[in-house]
Amino acid sequence: MKISVITAVYNSEATVGEAIASVAAQTYPDVEHLVVEGKSKDGSLAAIERAGHERMRLMSEPDDGIYDAVNKGVRNSTGDVIGFIHSDDFLAHNGVLARIAAAFEDPAVEAVFSDLDYVAQADTSRVIRHWSTGAFHPWRLEYGWMPPHPTLYLRREVYEHFGTYDKNMRIAADYDFILRYFSQATGKSVYIPEVLYKMRVGGVSNRNWPKIRQKMEEDMLAIRRNRVGGLHTLAFKNLSKVSQFLVRPQHS
């Protein structure tokens, strides 16, 4: 079973090398790492080429934002299972993809996800937030549940059936896709109660009030479009983040 890992890159010179290295270090052998670089204005392309490994393929061309880039990655990937690693982030250890592959050994499983740590930009050993969602149950969608998108691995057939990401959304297309899939899913999903992904704080959706407002508006559009709830869903989704600052993982 081949796993495709997609990394969309734009102006991430300082961190993309670590993201790529964390994939290169994986012990699982059948991995394709597709890096989609959007003609960055900094030294990202050179950093990618320095960190490149034999399982990596590079696409470097202009795109229309991150969701356009990840859609290109999905279309051009060849794996049986597809996942993502953002250019500012990294996999938690070198056995992550082996852990995910083991969960997919059951042919009835079509989605696998895990816990995620938000870590400090300057010191990635310092955990700021810990995101642990627990297992999926359909009723939980109405109360703001979603798995951390970077931890979500899906069989290729899921994208073939449900489509890819709405690039007209600039921030919340991942939430929209998650609602689209999980509100209609008939296959099994597996929750791995372990931190498999480390994300640096300071993502685009949290940079300033206009971005926060835009994300809330897009979240609400996704909720209505996928008919999973209403304003209470958005409220629960945002309130759930409070506990992420209070709970620390047992292992990192």
What does this structure look like?
With 252 residues, this protein is of the alpha/beta class. The chain has 8 helices and 9 strands. Strands 1, 2, 3, 4, 5, 6, 7, 8 and 9 form a 9-stranded mixed β-sheet that branches. Helix 1 packs parallel to helix 2 and helix 6 packs parallel to helix 7. The protein is globular, with a radius of gyration of 17 Å. The relative contact order is 0.16.
Short précis:
Helix content is 33%, strand content 23%. By secondary structure, the protein is of the alpha/beta class.
SSE inventory with pairings:
Elements: E1 3-9, H1 16-24, E2 31-37, H2 44-51, E3 56-60, H3 66-76, E4 81-84, E5 90-91, H4 96-103, E6 109-119, E7 127-131, E8 153-155, H5 156-162, H6 173-182, E9 188-200, H7 209-225, H8 231-244
Parallel strand pairs: 1-2, 1-4, 2-3, 6-9
Antiparallel strand pairs: 4-8, 5-9, 6-7, 6-8
Helix pairs in contact: 1-2, 6-7
Range of helix content: 25-40%
Structural class: alpha/beta
Query: So what's the overall shape?
Result: globular
Write the element-wise H/E pattern from the N-terminal end onward.
Answer: EHEHEHEEHEEEHHEHH
Tally of DSSP β-strands:
9
Q: C-alpha Rg, in Å?
A: 17 Å
Compute the number of helices: 8
Average pLDDT over all residues: 94
